[in-house]
Write the structure tokens for this entry.
Amino acid sequence: MDRIKTTPTPLAGLVIVETAVYRDARGYFTETYNLKDFSDAGLPMVFVQDNQSYSVRGVLRGLHFQKNHSQGKLVRVLRGEVFDVGVDLRPESPTYKQWFSVTLTGDNKKQLYLPEGFAHGFVALSETAELSYKCTAFYNPAEEAGIRWDDPDIGINWPIHADAVILSDKDALLPFLRDTECVTGIKV
């Protein structure tokens, strides 16, 4: 493998990223982000913030986005396994309201790049999961928004029974997309 491999998804701009992993008896080494390699691969974004979360099995976080100061995100799992989802919230996009998922694990080292204008969410499938992601814009609490994980107009096929989902109080109160005034700064 080259130093970086990108695989486009059916949703424009949403890309699976794999970096070269060098393994031996001691363990492994991988360079998870290199501005030059990403730029050469057609992903010239610059990141300004890194975040990390820890979740137990069944924790579902999302679907989150920022309204006007949208964030692109490069998501990877350090330990464990998550079902990671991006939802296209760009009204001008031919894939508006469509979703894509990929299983990210600490072992497969895959990353998912979600461009600006996507909602992001994931559910922890392993006993515990640590997720790390880089953002192209700073977190702004005044711009924080989200849509329900089980929105029927989006129809994500989560690999977990609804009774087993663990939500934060805030995520449990998120609106359906049809009830959202502002999505990435544009009325829907």
User: Anything to note?
Assistant: The longest strand covers residues 49-56.
